[in-house]
User: Fold these one by one.
Assistant:
Number 1:
Amino acid sequence: MASLNVGNLGEYLREQRRNAQLSLRQLADAAGVSNPYLSQIERGLRKPSAEVLQQVAKALRISAETLYVRAGILDAERDRDEAETRAVILADPSLNERQKQVLLQIYESFRKENGFGTGEAAGPARDGDGTADQATGGGSSTDGGGDAAGSDTGAGRRRTAG
């Protein structure tokens, strides 16, 4: 069996298992997976699902997120940078709620344009009376109605210039 690019995960799991002073069989039993399957994960021959990683993390009493990052399911640095950017915007006392939501939508549209956006984190802008939704053309960065964002109409020009 050819090795998948999950050796780092397997090595890390083996190290954590040994630190917990568990045998391969004990960890497999605690996580509810087969002994051979866990062995293959540790040797980098299998890429486990997020569910299996969660079970193993619980059995080892470590963060499942750490295993997700090592397995390539999450990109920790990019996710952390995005979360920090959003937190700074939301914490800025000089902006009102509508402005914060519009800024988050603009930020998300730029991330999508650059191939990083998921569209899930910012969500639709809501400040109670719907003004943020109207200001951004309903929250869609592709409908051309985002006069508050303004940058969507020049996106094609920016790409060809750079």
Number 2:
Amino acid sequence: MTARTTVLDSDVRAAMQALSAAAKKGLGDPALAELVQIRASQLNHCAFCLDLHLTIARRHGVSERQLDLLDAWEEAGEVFDERERAALALTEAVTVLAGGTSRTKSGGGFVPDEVYEKAAQHFDEGRLAHLVALITVINNWNRLMVSRRIPAGSTRW
């Protein structure tokens, strides 16, 4: 596959990289940050981001077993702890945004209350804000790469 375009404004790239770095730093858990980014990239079918973040995850000590089972994390038993499971559920809810535009009387809608509340049990308010920011920024990266068809391993993007 060849890229449709490799043009990306340098100011946009720098802003996105800064947002990514700030979100990761604020989350304070590099291995979890990579699991979250990989899971969103799986859902968005972004080969470029998968390739990149799988490599980084290994550097941060994420086990091959976790990487192998990430696509089926809900059925993977004790491979993922409760904190990781809460972060992955939130990743899926923010990435997929199921539920359309309707709101439930409980205040739900796009991201179900129970998913957000479960994450809030495992992350303080600041880390939860950084987790949501990280999920948001990887989704933006995925869209930038997929829409332009940037292939895995590309050095021009």
